[in-house]
UniProtKB/TrEMBL annotation:
The keyword Calcium does not apply. InterPro entries: Fumarylacetoacetase-like_C, Fumarylacetoacetase_C_sf, Rv2993c-like_N. It comes from Streptomyces pyxinae. This is Fumarylacetoacetate hydrolase family protein. One of its GO terms (molecular function) is hydrolase activity. Keywords: Hydrolase, Metal-binding.
């Protein structure tokens, strides 16, 4: 099931996305919240009549760096033995169709297409065999990065945590399991229709199971929290006016336009 969060006539709701093509998609409004047992209301609205919002409002976003060997190498970094984790703040989150604001303190903004994992229940010290039970679903993400700032600052907080640097969406797919991620979901990024990144989740150095075990050894994850699983090779520059799209096989396409901040 595809679960979207949206606004219509000033109201915010969750809905199940129904339909298979770009035309005629509708949202069946959910009674309650999607992380618990819920019912479909039967009240349906056309997708084209709503504004899609970030599909979740995470308490925290835990991102993983250099989780694809070729991406690590393309930036001149060694391939890490253990997952490299960092945080993106909740204020960095935007949804499908929202604008990425080019920050004034950077002259080198990069796209990073990523599979994002959405947590469905509070969990800590999760054993590997239970990881599938705490994952709510999967969505698309773009770990927008001020690459010049990342190079010159020891911490990545500003380079990867500025406002609008974490597009998520367009919805959460709950039907794609972790076995499909391990087997390989295609990860693609285009800029103005030109392909920039094309990879597969089969090439992740550390699996979703690895990441959840590693992260929850240290901290509690809450419903709606997001794990960004890293980006394949091919990252590159964005300019004001560009339209950047991240497509994950079996999930959907997340599209955002880059504008000048202010």
């Amino acid at each position: 099931m595809r679960i979207a969060r949206f606004s219509i006539d000033g109201n915010v709701a969750f809905g199940a996305v129904e339909g298979d093509g770009p035309d005629g998609l509708v949202l069946d409004i959910i009674k309650g919240i999607p992380y618990a047992d819920f019912e479909l209301s039967g009240t349906k609205v056309p997708l084209e009549k709503v504004r899609l919002l970030p599909p979740v409002l995470p308490n925290k976003i835990v991102a993983i760096g250099r989780n694809y060997a070729e991406h690590a190498r393309e930036l001149g970094n060694e391939v890490p033995e253990a997952p490299v984790a960092f945080f993106k703040p909740t204020t960095s989150v935007i949804g499908h169709g929202d604008a990425v604001e080019y920050p004034a303190f950077s002259q080198e903004l990069h796209h990073e297409a990523e599979l994002a994992v959405v947590i469905g229940r509070m969990c800590r010290e999760v054993p590997r065999e239970r990881v599938k039970d705490v994952v709510f679903g999967l969505t698309c993400a773009n770990d927008i990065t001020a690459r010049d700032v990342q190079r010159r600052e020891n911490q990545w907080a500003r380079a990867k945590g500025f406002d609008t640097s974490c597009p998520l969406g367009p919805w959460v797919e709950t039907g794609t399991g972790l076995a499909a991620v391990a087997a390989g979901l295609g990860v693609q990024c285009t800029v103005n229709g030109e392909q920039r990144q094309l990879g597969t989740t089969a090439d992740m150095l550390h699996s979703v199971e690895d990441l959840v075990v590693h992260i929850t050894e240290a901290m509690t994850l809450l419903p709606g929290d997001v794990i960004l699983t890293g980006t394949p090779a091919g990252v590159g520059p964005l300019s004001v006016g560009d339209e950047v799209a991240v497509t994950i096989e079996g999930i959907g396409t997340l599209t955002n336009k880059v504008i000048k901040r202010g």
